[in-house]
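[Help] Beginner question about ligand-bound structures

Sorry if this is basic. My supervisor gave me a protein sequence and a SMILES string for NAI and asked me to "get the holo structure". I don't really know what that means in practice or what format the answer should be in. Inputs are pasted below exactly as I got them.
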Amino acid sequence: MSEPTRSRIFVTRKIPGAALDRLREAHDVSIWPDELPPTPEQLLENVAGCDGLLTMLSDRIDETVIKAAGPQLKVVSNYAVGFNNIDLKAAREHGVCVGNTPDVLTGATADLAVTLLLAAARRVEEGAAEVREGRWGAWKPSALLGVEPEGKTVGVVGMGRIGKAFAERMVRGWNMKLLYTSRSDQADVDESLRGRRVDLDELLAESDFVSIHVALTDDTRNLIDAAALSKMKSTAVLVNTARGEIIDQDALVDAIKGGRIFAAGLDVTTPEPLPPSHPLVGLPRVIILPHIGSATDTSRCGMAEIAVDNVLAGVAGRPLRCEVPLG
Ligand SMILES: NC(=O)C1=CN([C@@H]2O[C@H](COP(=O)(O)OP(=O)(O)OC[C@H]3O[C@@H](n4cnc5c(N)ncnc54)[C@H](O)[C@@H]3O)[C@@H](O)[C@H]2O)C=CC1
Ligand SMILES: O=C(O)C(=O)CO
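Answer (accepted):
No worries, everyone starts somewhere. Holo just means with the ligand present. The predicted complex, written as structure tokens, is below.
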């Protein structure tokens, strides 16, 4: 009996868990060894001749990369649920399947959105900085006053998997009223969470807390711009765990400085990493985390299993476990 064909796979970063062992057993795998990602030039060099790529959300996989890999490339398996870093049109044109890692990170990312909402609302960053920097003075009745979610209105922009998990937490945990935007009606959300689908303008005007959960597309880039921010309540808290490009960051700096919204909690920014000199960094009432929404052992190992399954299926010409529709 002939040996099964071994494919060439490039993995652009070490990933947690044992899933990569399964890939190594079946195929010839090279893993980028550094903590820092390959530069665009290094990526082009390393993909040449590969049948499959296992990529990170920070790797830009455009037509140049797909062509540099060569016509034998069958699959790009992204170690993320988001796939805005991949040129889907180029993938389709070159007959390459694209995989992503949904569901296993939904709870962790929704938890982080709740964390950011509470941390921003209760000014946790400013308080912790006072302690760290020796500025903790006498207890003051009106120091670091925040806002409470209980019974208020939460607006979820994009009622997908994570949007829904976040909404469940806020409605069940804090008895909040739910408004959301969605491209289609969601009867289950309306029934089980007493949600109401509205347009973005109404959501921004009526919500005390707004959390972004849409995918980044040409339609959602800069969705939250100066005009959108101006529609929000001056007491509102804005949370973003989706993608940095969905918010116009210059407009957000102006809105926070001008007191046009109360606070913001961001897990994602443009660029990433955000340089410490950026005007958002250190701004009171803005808390920024380094894109850790899915950073739990459980989620990242689950993502690794799916990403490896996607590569194994893709190089074998089978449907992927989680395949991104290419239109
Ligand atoms: N901070 C982090 O570590 C993480 C961030 N994410 C981000 O969260 C996003 C959402 O993930 P999931 O909920 O699993 O994806 P999903 O596909 O279930 O949800 C995305 C939602 O956005 C909606 N949408 C897309 N374009 C829209 C538009 N123009 N207007 C209104 N709605 C629109 C879709 O209909 C869908 O309901 C990912 O695309 C990713 O960017 C995901 C996981 C971790
Ligand atoms: O999965 C994603 O899209 C992330 O941003 C990180 O898990």
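A couple of things worth pointing out: The CA atoms of residues 60 and 85 lie 5 Å apart. The longest strand covers residues 153-157. Feel free to follow up in the thread.
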